[in-house]
Amino acid sequence: IAHLDKEAEANGSDSPLLRRLCAEALAAHGKPEAAVKQFKLALQFDPTNQPARIGLIKLLDRLDRKDEALVQLLLRIDIERHNLDLYTDLINRTKDDAAWSERAFTSIIESAPTEHLHHQKAAELRQGQNRWSDAIVHWQQVAKHQAFEPTGLLGLAKAQIHEKKWDAAKATVEKLNATEWPSRFSNLDRKSDV
Q1: DSSP one-letter code for 184
Q2: Do 16 and 45 contact (CB within 8 A), yes or no?
Q3: Average confidence (pLDDT) over 97-111
Q4: Spatial separation of the C-alpha atoms in residues 119 and 111, rounded to whole Å
């Protein structure tokens, strides 16, 4: 580390890989503060270094430095906008602040408003929050953006049934049954429990 510091000071160059490896070694040997410093140096020279970012987040969590870990997670999301697990992590980390948590939730859609997987994740999360009416809106978007697969219509019908929207559910199931799906969905009847 002293050699890396000296080289960085002398010629302004550094090695994000070596800094990350030093951080991992320091963390493993019970020197978390020194490890945090090395992770941050690795990210200073390569902000896209996801192994360093992940290591830093885990270490900050271990040190109970939740606000710093949250900042690092947001930086990770900026780079990995389509990693839906990161949004779930963000929602979980902000669950004690309703406004923050809702903002985290809307980021799922804002990051890719026409991607069916983002709407599907939003629908599933809303169902988990027992907000089925909100889930319906997202299942409608899944059905719109993924018209070649029955997933959106199946989810939509289940949500409509849960909310006792019988006429809407009937129309969705009729559309589901009337559509000619690709052969890989030949067992649709057995999969559909609506």
Answers
A1: G
A2: yes
A3: 91
A4: 11
Question: What letter represents residue 143's amino acid?
Answer: A
Q: Which of 16, 17, 36, 18 is nearest to 26 (CA)?
A: 36
Question: Which of 12, 36, 13 is CA-nearest to residue 24?
Answer: 36
Question: What own/partner pairs with CB < 8 Å and gap ≥ 24 does 180-183 have?
Answer: 181/149, 181/150, 182/148, 182/149
Instruction: Say if residues 111 and 82 touch (Cβ distance below 8 Å).
Output: yes
Q: Specify the DSSP element, H or E, that contains 82.
A: none
* Number of CB atoms found within 10 A of residue 66's CB: 11
CA distance 80 to 96: 24
- Number of other residues whose CB lies within 10 A of the CB of residue 139: 29
* Cβ atoms < 10 Å from Cβ of 99: 8
Whole-number Å distance between alpha carbons of 131 and 141:
16
Cα(2)–Cα(18) distance, integer angstroms: 12
**Whole-angstrom distance, CA of residue 188 vs CA of residue 4:** 60
Q: Over the stretch 129-146, which tens digit does the pLDDT of each residue have?
A: 999 999 999 999 999 999
How far from 31 is each of 23, 28, 60, 66, 93, CA to CA, in Å?
Answer: 9, 7, 13, 19, 25
Length of the chain: 194
Tokens encoding 136: 């319906």
pLDDT in tens, 181-193: 988 887 765 444 5
